[in-house]
Design brief:
single chain; mainly alpha; globular
């Protein structure tokens, strides 16, 4: 057992070092004789706005299309939304930005398993299928672009070698798709012969692989995934197409597709975090093939990489933070439920007094944000109260007390989420949430607390629940509702 762990550790170190060395080699090849002063001048003179904005939007569209592809591939076993699927894809890319040798693919498979309930074997199969379709689409686009640009002689060997590698993978996938029972039978007999103890776990893993390719058993579905993969990479080519005008030059859609294909085919090989060095290397080579000056090509590659890196890191980081919040809350609730069940037999009645730990904190003056959220959260106009401000103040203090009763780590995570909410409101309305008119605040609160986006609903769950609890338990509200009930009789 120890030897196995040590071997795995050595392999991880080997692949990490190999990826770094691979990256450095190609970077040195690309940067040889580079005039760095000229590169700085090119970047400083670039007119990034509005081209970089359009390019990022095009890239975001390609990420959403990747989410749609993931949704389709698991649609036989899970009803995954496009938003959730896109978040899963982005998390994988974001993790690849900070960890080497494409560790993000494992993170992506793990999150897909957690979100859908699929086995890890099925999830990793889906991720690998997407990578296979990506490779096929890139090779096809590279071959097509090279044909129109008369650059076939430059990349002929690369295309043929890539086609051979992906062709072997396609044959394996087709065998599983067309003859799943045969594949299972061969695996079952082989494992029984080698070691009978491996039979059941290996067969469960193989069943996951078989289920992972279920969607491709229909020719229409196979064509749909192939077409969608082509569109995804055309959107990625749009990123390159839209950035180049910022440097005072232009690319045709065929040229942009060629550069995109050269770059992304190069970084399919696992390397260092973010593929920073090989990305620039292959992008520069693709541009210089087309006659672009090396300094301009270097500046272009740096801007494109920074744009994609920031987009993935911000989006993926936000998703990871929220995912950790939900996971931590689930673990915390599970621990509490376990502790309650542990001592349940010692008491005839078990009760949880909401707000009991926050009683001493309710005397604190609520923040303007909490007060404005409380005012927007409760149906104050549906109850005729003599002094609405007293009830709203009580509700806000109760919310704030409950928040401050949370463990510190949850308080910090909630503050991060609310800071994001406040920033988005300020960007949209050019005012803070507390300074908006009440009808506008109510509309915003309802959209976030009761809308179709699960992330915003989860963020507002604590505030929404505690606000309604405090409001309807306030003595003034109880009295009004009881009088109304008596009058209706």
């Amino acid at each position: 057992m120890r030897n196995t762990k040590a071997t795995r550790g050595l392999l991880r170190i080997f692949f990490f070092i190999a990826g770094i060395l691979f990256s450095i080699f190609f970077m040195l090849m690309a940067m040889k004789n580079m005039e760095w002063q000229h590169v700085r001048e090119v970047i400083s003179n670039a007119q990034l706005y509005p081209w970089i904005l359009f390019a990022v939007l095009c890239y975001v569209a390609s990420l959403c299309l990747r989410g749609l592809r993931t949704k389709l591939l698991v649609s036989h076993d899970s009803n995954l939304s496009v938003v959730t699927a896109s978040n899963i894809v982005v998390v994988g890319h974001a993790v690849n930005n900070i960890l080497p040798v494409r560790i993000g693919e494992l993170a992506r498979a793990g999150m897909l398993t957690e979100r859908t309930g699929l086995s890890f074997a099925q999830s990793i199969t889906v991720v690998l299928l997407e990578r296979l379709f990506d490779g096929i689409a890139i090779v096809v686009l590279l071959a097509g672009a090279s044909y129109f640009l008369n650059t076939w002689a430059l990349i002929e060997k690369t295309v043929l070698f890539s086609s051979f590698i992906f062709g072997i993978a396609v044959i394996g996938v087709l065998f599983i798709v067309l003859a799943p029972n045969r594949f299972l039978a061969v695996t079952s007999k082989s494992t029984s012969f080698i070691n009978p103890r491996w039979h059941d776990p290996v067969l469960r893993f193989i069943m996951g692989i078989v289920n992972g390719v279920n969607y491709l058993r229909s020719q229409a579905n196979l064509g749909k995934i192939l077409l969608l993969s082509m569109v995804i990479w055309f959107c990625d080519a749009g990123l390159y197409l839209l950035v180049m005008p910022a440097f005072g030059s232009t690319l045709t859609i065929v040229q942009a597709t060629f550069v995109m294909a050269v770059t992304n085919l190069g970084i399919l090989i696992p390397s260092g975090p973010g593929h920073i060095i090989p990305f620039r290397s292959f992008c520069i080579q693709g541009l210089t093939f087309l006659g672009i000056a090396p300094a301009t090509a270097t500046g272009f590659a740096m801007v494109v990489q920074i744009a994609t890196y920031i987009t993935l890191t911000l989006w993926g980081g936000a998703v990871i933070i929220w995912y950790c919040v939900r996971l931590a809350l689930t673990i915390n609730l599970t621990k509490r439920a376990t502790s309650i069940d542990k001592y349940a037999d010692q008491f005839s009645i078990t009760a949880n007094l909401l707000g009991s730990t926050a009683a001493e904190k309710m005397n604190e003056v609520p923040s303007p944000l909490i007060y404005s959220l409380a005012e927007a959260a409760v149906p104050i106009d549906s109850v005729a109260l003599s002094d609405q401000r007293v009830v709203i103040s009580y509700t806000a203090r109760f919310i704030q007390g409950e928040i401050k009763s949370l463990p510190k780590k949850f308080q910090i995570l909630l503050k991060i989420g609310m800071a994001g909410f406040g920033a988005l409101v300020r960007i949209r309305y050019f005012q803070s949430f507390a300074h908006l008119p009440l009808p506008t605040r109510v509309a915003i609160f309802n959209a976030w607390a009761y809308g179709s986006v699960s992330v915003t609903r989860q963020l507002f769950k604590l505030i929404r629940s505690t606000a309604l609890l405090a409001f309807f338990e306030h003595p003034a509200v109880v009295t009004v509702l009881e009088n109304r009930h008596c009058d209706s009789r």
